[in-house]
Amino acid sequence: MLDVVTLGEMLVQFNSVTTGPLRHVVYFEKHAAGAEANFAIGMVRLGFKAGFITRLGNDEFGKYILSVLRGEGVDTSRVKVDDEAPTGIYFIQRGYPVPERSSVVYYRRGSAASKLSPEDIDEDYIKGSRLLHLTGITPALSDSCMEATLKALRIAVENKVMVSFDTNVRMKLWLKAEKARKALLPMIEKADVVLTEPEDAEILIGEREPRKIIDKILALGPKIVVVKLGAEGAMASNGKEVAVKPGFRVPVVDVIGAGDAFAAGFMASILKGRSLEDALLFGNAAGALVVTVRGDIENLPSWEDIERFLAFQRREHVMFR
Ligand code: KDG
Question: Which pTM was predicted?
Fold first, then answer.
């Protein structure tokens, strides 16, 4: 039996070794990444059994991604290989035009994962799990991906499986804000835990202020709402208490993937019955570790590494040898 099931697209990420506009970058480093897969790997590192539903192309990049998922211990029994469509890829531009920020350029239209459809969603697989994690990326990939997401959500709700939903609004995929709003709001309403950030909330509910975002989303039905504030930390509420935790100061190499690391740290803590404050602390720590390197998954921490990171932040003596 699994603890967590998620679905979406894992892509090959070509991360610029140097900062600056992509046209001048000479060297790219190959990684495997994608919001939901990052989350699944993050949860495995934190001791949970996680399964990932997707389609991969029958190509070199598909083989690479499958080996990464298997190597990380993610259950790949529901990963299908598609002979017709390729594995998606994307490039990351770092530090330009905004220092310490990254942007993405996708080559994923028509990818194998965009062909994911309701027939790929196995009812028993989700029923037997403790948590279904969804993000706003998968429903933006295609109509069939949207239907697959809705089917997974329906199964979870009907079987009282906890649902976490990370808004992850990607306007490069939606193109129109109205489309994102119409698709994602009904999903948010059915989720138990919603993770979002001010930029997404502005698009979805016309609100940027963390406290107001929390109140507005709690009023839609979710039991816990978390607002991720990047380097500033995060705020969360369960309707009874509001918790706030500042972020950690770390050298920033590439911020892509930090939100997924945060989500894994946060949800792993919730599944372990920890307080909102602890969940924010562990989420922030996981996110901080991920921004210090290129690649989304490499620095996803174990509990032990989170503890060592936190001890160092508290200026406690940490043994390195
Ligand atoms: O959250 C990080 C992801 O955004 C990145 O890895 C790529 O999944 C991705 C996406 O669709 O943007």
Answer: 0.97
